[in-house]
Amino acid sequence: MSDARAGLTRRQAHERDLRRRSLLIAGGSTLAVILAIVFLVPLAPGWERVQQSFFNAEVFARTFPKLLNAFLLDVAIFAWSAPLIAALGLAVALARDVRNPVLYPLRLFGTVYTDIFRGVPVVLVVYLIGFGIPGLGLPRPWNSPYIWGTVALVLTYSAYVAEIFRSGIESVHQSQRNAALSLGLSGGDSMRYVVLPQAIRRVIPAQMNMLIALQKDVALLSFIGPVEIFRQAGVFKSLLANFTPYVVAACIFLVITVPATRLADHLIARQNRARS
Amino acid sequence: MKLRLDNVQKSFGATRVLDGISLDVAKGEMVCLIGASGSGKSTLLRCINLLEPLDDGAIWLDGEDIAEPALDPQPIRQRIGIVFQSFNLFPHMTAVENVMLAPRRVRKETREALRPEVTALFDRFGLADRMGHYPDQLSGGQQQRVAIIRALAMRPEIMLFDEITSALDPELVGEVLQVLKALKEDGMTMILATHEMAFARDVADRVCVLDHGRIIEEGPPAQVFTAPREARTRAFLSRVLQPV
């Protein structure tokens, strides 16, 4: 009766009831879990000490501005690495796709390159290039850890990004390339105007995930010198004998990476909808 | 312009798809290829456009053997347009960009210089108000007409049509066949692989019946459709003309 007054069909009323019910259950169970954590965790014998050394509000407030400042260096390294990675990654992907026998060395190079840099941990590349090349005794500024740390990140990430581009290129159906060729377009023009624009669009969500990973891996450069957020947090840790700066650093990363992750997921979901 | 196929042969692995096809096409002639699926119609068209390399035989276009494997296919493809069953428009470009891409890149013409000719083509085939649409905003029949315009914009001397109405809803077939009729009136040289028997009968100058990679019968449509000489032609026609 009341449903009829609300102007709902029987089905709509039923679905509304279902929705209310599941909202209630989800809210209830979430609340139960949060309460359990809030009440049970402090019962642990070491809680006092953990709270003191990881969640110290005073230390948090004191270190936050300087850590945020150090994070700007992460952002800067990220900002100049990302376009270089996109360009080198695309170049390597195209090199692996060449069919002209004269250019075979290029193709071979692309294959060897992606195999090597996908097979070595990022931190090792950062160490080897970041310490190794300045060790050659290069004059300033060519011994800068910023340059060689960036090179290490660009080399590693380009290998992954190239593979994603290549999967995108291969996902464009052969009939598109044939249609372009049949119009008299050259192989290069077919790639540039027909295949690549479609391929790049398809891999944008996957590349977004690479960007997020890159943003986090910038912290690895701390091992070779630059005082970015992770290293700055380490300095504070030693200074204050407290781990809270690491938590601050984690929070600052999350502020950037969580929205970026959401955006990537949104793009992927939209693409899946468009395809089905 | 004259096209002559001489003993064209093509295999995919152990399968002989084209088993010695010879065919002369005169300027302005419309030749229809009919035959069961897998008889080699599509492969023959793709070979003429050099999308598939021949195994053996020759294709003469104005006295030049375009099947010569060492030849650069690009300038030859510009002279031979092809339209596919599945349209194959470029989905990331509007209809007019689809049409202008090849003339711009290959003939190095500007959009402004191309605009009058391209607009006239869209206008003529009833798509003047669809030039700025993307392929997924167009019906199948409209997409196929754009594909035909795209091929025509390269000013080909001969057009190949590979079952261009087979992927269309029945009510959209007519608008595409109208375009073919108009092209024939222009004097365009055309080779069609088709399942549209009524169209072949009414419009074609000549019909070739393919079976297992060979032309088993050819002649004017009146003869092939009403008095086929070959038993296999009769069997094929009775299958397609009287659907169960």
TrEMBL record, chain A:
Residues 71-264 form the ABC transmembrane type-1 domain. It is found in: Cell inner membrane; Cell membrane. The chain crosses the membrane at residues 21-47, 67-95, 116-134, 146-165, 239-260. GO terms for molecular function: transmembrane transporter activity. CDD domains: TM_PBP2. Keywords: Amino-acid transport, Cell membrane, Membrane, Transmembrane, Transmembrane helix, Transport. InterPro entries: AA_ABC_transptr_permease_3TM, ArtM/GltK/GlnP/TcyL/YhdX-like, MetI-like, MetI-like_sf. It comes from the Bacteria. GO terms for biological process: amino acid transport. SUPFAM superfamilies: MetI-like. It is a multi-pass membrane protein. Belongs to the binding-protein-dependent transport system permease family. HisMQ subfamily. This is ABC transporter permease. The lineage of its organism: Bacteria, Pseudomonadati, Pseudomonadota, Alphaproteobacteria, Rhodobacterales.
From TrEMBL, chain B:
InterPro entries: AAA+_ATPase, ABC_ATPase_HisP-typ, ABC_transporter-like_ATP-bd, ABC_transporter-like_CS, MetN_ABC_transporter-like, P-loop_NTPase. It is a peripheral membrane protein. Keywords: Amino-acid transport, ATP-binding, Cell membrane, Membrane, Nucleotide-binding, Transport. SUPFAM superfamilies: P-loop containing nucleoside triphosphate hydrolases. One of its GO terms (molecular function) is ATP binding. Gene3D superfamilies: P-loop containing nucleotide triphosphate hydrolases. One of its GO terms (cellular component) is plasma membrane. Residues 3-237 form the ABC transporter domain. It is found in: Cell membrane. Its main location: membrane. Belongs to the ABC transporter superfamily. This is Peptide ABC transporter ATP-binding protein. It comes from Pseudaestuariivita atlantica.
